[in-house]
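Lecture 7, part 2: worked example. A protein chain together with zinc ion.
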Amino acid sequence: MRIQGIWRTLGLGVLFFVSQASAYEIHATPTRFPDGQFTIYSDLIHPSLGTAGVTAPVTTWDDALFDAAGLWNTGSVGLSYITIITGSYEDTCDNGDGEHGVDFTTDLCGDDFGSATLATARRTFSGTVVVEGNISFKESVSWDVYDGNLKTARDFQRVAVHELGHLLGLGHESTGSAIMAPSIGNLYQPQTDDLDGIAAIYTNTCPTYIKAGNEVINSSFEFTDCFGSEAGLAKPSISGLTDSSVALDAYVRIYRLTMEETGTIELDLTSPDFNSAIYILDSSLTTNLKSGWASTGNTASISYTASPGTYYAVARSVLRGKVGDYTLTIVPEPSETLLLIVAMTSLIGLKRLRRRK
Ligand SMILES: [Zn+2]
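Predicted complex, written out as structure tokens:
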């Protein structure tokens, strides 16, 4: 029989493997799930093998997938969490519905698996945000479920661990001991290197600054920054934009503005890399007091007359997951009225173990 030995990943859009480093690899086009959370639907029945492997204790494919997710969920120090809903089928080629699925398939939605491929994880992303992930296990492989050294029949669960690692954002790690190695081997669970990679992707913190007075802030949104949803912000309504054109999962920076007397806050936000939105929230971070936006390269300007108190200005892109540079100019009038501090927002890892049938 042909030895099936390589697993593969594939991004819709641009994806290449970064090669060779002493530590984990993140996909060359970095992507992640907002809040580190995603849900996969699974109702795995192999056309000839049925619902389960053969090695005792006999484990169903669905249970093996659930356990594979559990290894990432319990091992990760970051925010990531995979929910598996078993007994619920999602077509892995139904790409574009935003639902994540897993299946045994004969091909990759019309493309060939390649002779050595065991399984493939496909990510569809917008900016850095994964909007859909699907995993296809090659139907013609002789599958089983077991721990320990690799046997002729391939262990479905360790392949599932590997492919889930791809969906979480990891690329192939060629040098260290890793479940994300390019080829299947005797490892069957995430290694320290793999978990370090997850922590790097999902331990997201918004930077903290302390500044005062008039400010011109040149900064940038990076892959590891916080999305608005992760910072606890609701999706804003932005003047001049429909609700559907404003993404929830945009990177944000929150600037705390303290007015010592009544005055005007003028905010200008410009980015050469993304369409920018700027808005002012009240002290509870819930009520949008003023907002504006501008297309890429243009300046979003707002002016808000404020009585003494605390306000928050939020800089973001209009679209989801956009990284790049921006300049934020904050001008209080009169100039002595404003004390400015950038709010600290850090995320605490959230662990839940949950299963629904
Ligand atoms: Zn792989």
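The radius of gyration is 23 Å. The mean pLDDT is 84. Keep this in mind for problem set question 3.
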